[in-house]
């Protein structure tokens, strides 16, 4: 066994954290330093873990046209779950909508607050302002993975929505993807976060899970190589 493999084995066994937190804090560092590339390393039971690049530059950029499309037709308060430095909060506020970003990352929340955005540090699973009264909640850029249990997250989101409110979710490119796993964020120098539970689901798994979470899939669309769905409270 190589030294890296032995060290990784030890790290996989550590208590789980949240996306990119702990260890060398590569997520917070990437936000602060405007690094564009990080890697998501995922545990592969029984075989070596593998790391794939993720576009970290997107988190600190403005919402693009595809992101903006998510807010079309939204007329009430918007909750961006796992908002990072707040590009979707900025987009919603720019449309004159009341908006709140929630994120566990102190660095992301500080950056968003310094930019004049309305944000709160905490977990989506904690008690929240306007429980049951959000017109829209967002899970973009992989955030359906938060907590590593998509069904639990969808159920929590249904509780947050107003009657008639919409949950806007970005999905995997792969319609059949349905995976929960332990991951780590890694920077290009090999600095790694602590392990965190994460999930990736496509449209089929979303449809399978929506009903039990109290939601119905009202629409899904592909744009610019990305796949989205709009769910309503059942
Ligand atoms: C992939 S990043 C996406 C950032 C942002 N949505 C964007 O698109 O720019 C995931 C974010 O989810 C946050 N997060 C992880 N677990 C969370 C939780 N339980 N509650 C709220 N935010 C969480 C992380 O801190 C991180 O900022």
Automatic annotation (TrEMBL):
Q: Where is the Methyltransferase domain?
A: 78-165
| Gene source species | Cryobacterium shii
Q: Does the keyword Methyltransferase apply?
A: yes
Q: Name one GO biological process term.
A: methylation
Q: Which InterPro entries match?
A: Methyltransf_25 (IPR041698), SAM-dependent_MTases_sf (IPR029063)
Q: What is this protein called?
A: Class I SAM-dependent methyltransferase
CDD domains from the UniProt entry: AdoMet_MTases
- Source species, domain of life: Bacteria
Keyword Secreted attributed: no
Write the record's keywords in alphabetical order, separated by commas: Methyltransferase, Transferase
- Molecular functions per Gene Ontology: methyltransferase activity
Which SUPFAM superfamilies does the UniProt record give? S-adenosyl-L-methionine-dependent methyltransferases (SSF53335)
């Amino acid at each position: 066994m190589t030294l890296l493999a032995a060290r990784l084995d030890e790290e996989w066994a550590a208590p789980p954290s949240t996306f990119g937190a702990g260890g060398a804090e590569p997520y917070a560092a990437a936000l602060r330093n405007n690094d564009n590339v990080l890697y998501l390393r995922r545990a592969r039971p029984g075989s070596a873990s593998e790391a794939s690049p993720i576009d970290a530059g997107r988190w600190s950029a403005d919402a693009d046209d595809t992101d903006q499309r998510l807010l079309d037709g939204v007329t009430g308060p918007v909750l961006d779950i796992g908002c990072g430095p707040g590009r979707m909060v900025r987009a919603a506020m720019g449309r004159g909508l009341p908006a709140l970003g929630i994120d566990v990352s102190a660095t992301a929340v500080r950056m968003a607050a310094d930019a004049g955005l309305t944000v709160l540090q905490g977990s989506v699973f904690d008690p929240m302002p306007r429980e049951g009264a959000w017109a829209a909640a967002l899970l973009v850029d992989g955030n359906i993975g938060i907590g590593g249990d998509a069904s639990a997250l969808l159920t929590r989101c249904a509780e947050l929505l107003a009657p008639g409110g919409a949950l806007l979710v970005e999905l995997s490119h792969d319609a059949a993807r349905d995976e929960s796993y332990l991951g780590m964020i890694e920077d290009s120098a090999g600095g790694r976060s602590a392990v965190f539970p994460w999930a990736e689901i496509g449209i089929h798994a979303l449809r399978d899970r929506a009903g039990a979470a109290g939601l119905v899939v009202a629409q899904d669309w592909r744009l610019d190589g990305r796949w989205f769905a709009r769910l309503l409270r059942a």
